[in-house]
Amino acid sequence: MPHVGGKVAVFDVQATDVREALLPILTEVLTTEVANARVFDEVLAGRDVQQMLSFEEKKQMVGCDDTSCLAEIGGALGVDRLIVPQIARVSASWIVTLKQIDIRGASTEGRVYDTFEGDEGALLAGVRSSVVRLLGGAPVASTLTTTAPESSFPIVPVALWSTAAVSAGVGVALALKAKGHEDNAYDPSFVGAQHEIERSRDAALGANVALATAGALAVGGALAWWLTGDDVSAGVTANEGGAHAVVAGRF
Fold first, then answer.
1. Amino acid 237: pLDDT
2. Cβ–Cβ under 8 Å, residues 124 and 29
3. How much helix, strand and coil, in percent to the nearest 5, is found in the chain?
4. Could you give the CA distance from residue 188 to residue 202 in angstroms, rounded to a whole number?
5. Pick from 87, 113, 110: which is nearest to 1 by CA?
6. Using CA atoms, how far apart are residues 87 and 79, in angstroms rounded to an integer?
7. Which of 4, 16, 142, 173 could cross-link with 88 by S-S, CB 3.0 to 4.6 Å?
8. pLDDT along the chain (251 residues), means of 10
């Protein structure tokens, strides 16, 4: 990116239908990207702008969206340029507008308008790409779509089957333990044989639950294998009576 030099102030993000808690994060990402571009000698963040403005100037800033008005505020800050961001959520799309204002000429010397789809993570990526376009970096398509990368590896089924194998191993171990307690219970020479029946029952119950869970997970893995949706989720609930698995996906 070409080095311009001078001082630039990045205003806080103004947004429409964007989660309030996300705005400071967006402003921070925007300011950081501008600073990392090393186009300007000094970058003032939104919080710095607020501290430097007087009460009257802050009042003037509210509703100030034309170039001449913004240039006056920039003059009060003692900067050479302003970057004014606006973000809106319209249906399933994000709209990012960045405007760069030259204070001395009281003119808009750069404007970027990007629209793209995705979640809030995609919005952050979109802000970064918009900064690149505004500051004269490599061109970025004006419409960006963020999608999850496809993978041919069946992660969910393999995870379910692996967990099923572990659960089956636990079940077998508990079953052997239950058999050992049962043998002790019927051994007259074993000290404490009277308590071994209860221990055997507890171990047998644990074995049943573990083996039932393993079976449910195995079935869930088979179902997940055949699901064709993008998102697959699975859950297992175990109790004294056994276990069940739930696998869900988008078809």
1. 46
2. yes
3. 50, 25, 25
4. 21
5. 110
6. 23
7. 16
8. 86 90 91 92 82 64 73 83 92 92 88 91 90 73 41 64 79 82 73 72 79 78 60 46 46 40
Q: What is the pLDDT of residue 55?
A: 56
Structure tokens of 130? 């918009």
- What would the two tokens of residue 249 be? 């996906």
What is the helix (H) or strand (E) element at residue 33, kind and residue range?
helix 23-36
Report pLDDT for 86.
92
243, two tokens: 């276990």
Q: Is 152 left (phi over 0), alpha (psi -120 to 50) or beta?
A: alpha
User: Do residues 182 and 197 touch, judged by C-beta distance below 8 A?
Assistant: yes
Q: Does the predicted model carry a pTM greater than 0.70?
A: no
Per-residue pLDDT, 45: 83
Report phi then psi at 52, rounded to 5.
-85, -25
Phi/psi zone of residue 63: left (φ > 0), alpha (ψ -120 to 50 degrees), beta? left
Contacts of 114 (CB under 8 A, 6+ apart): 95, 96, 97, 126, 129, 130, 133, 140, 142, 143, 144
Question: pLDDT at position 137, please?
Answer: 61
**Cα–Cα distances in Å, from 16 out to 13, 20, 91, 125, 153?**
10, 10, 12, 18, 40
Burial degree of 90 (CB within 10 A; 0-12, 13-18, 19+): exposed
Quick one: DSSP state of residue 188? T
Query: How many whole angstroms separate alpha carbon 119 and alpha carbon 103?
Result: 35
- For residue 66, give the DSSP letter: S
- Separation CA 38–CA 6 (nearest Å): 11
